[in-house]
Amino acid sequence: IPPHSQAIYRGSFLLEGNARVYGLRGHMHMRGKHQIVEVIYPDGRYELLNKLNWDHGWHTQFLYEDDAILGRRPKPGVTIAGSERSVTINRFGFRGAEVESPKPAGVVRIAALGDSMTFGMEASDDRAVWVARMVDELNARSTRRFDSINAAVPGYTLAMSLERLRRDVAPFDPDVVIVLQSATDIAAHGRRQFRVIGESKVPTVETRLAKMLQESSLLVNLVRQNAAPFLARFAPQRRFDRLDERGVAEFEATLSAIVEECARRSQRVVFCTVPRSFGDDKRLADQHALAGT
Length: 293
Fold this sequence. Notes:
10 strands, single chain, four-stranded parallel sheet
């Protein structure tokens, strides 16, 4: 999507026979605005399956339940099985096989935190996720016994993963905590920095009415979507030559909080995240070179 523009993408998929829809999934991250999914039956009838204002946190599958603190969490006991992929949420709300509790003597337990990259939404099944594959490899190479907890949740930021570590993971006494996190925080920071000038997070009567019309009327939604690229031509363009350091500072502070949390329980912690390569202290030429890699 070119800068300062909006784009609409349409596609279709032909099913050769009867099928059951377990979930609807896109992959738009921070650039997505809206999504509409329809089914066209052989007799010409249309049915609207999904129409929403895009929220990266809820976009994956019907795997979640409400959470008073984190907003949502994987729903314990849910299984989604398709022809190419399957996902299992165990009774404790983690992806994969059940976890023994209390931890058996002599077991080295590895807990993984993160977003969709660690959850492994694209993996064919639970055993194909890198967390499970790593433990299988360790058990094959070592005389010690290893097990794992995949506590990642698509759409979670690092701060949300810290809360999940304290509340949901700590009771299972992991020996090593691996954190693979970056994409969701970058998206959240981008939404904050590049929000339209004058846009308010507090809904008004006008915004509530517009949202209600858009969600209840397919015609209103289609008109809005098709008009957006035309109207965007007349919108003032903005440049962002300086990085808002708040997001970077918050990310670094949360990394430190995870280290302290793990040190308090004598747990090892491993971070797999992006280096701080961009900022006002970096030459513009270096930033351009890094962006191209």
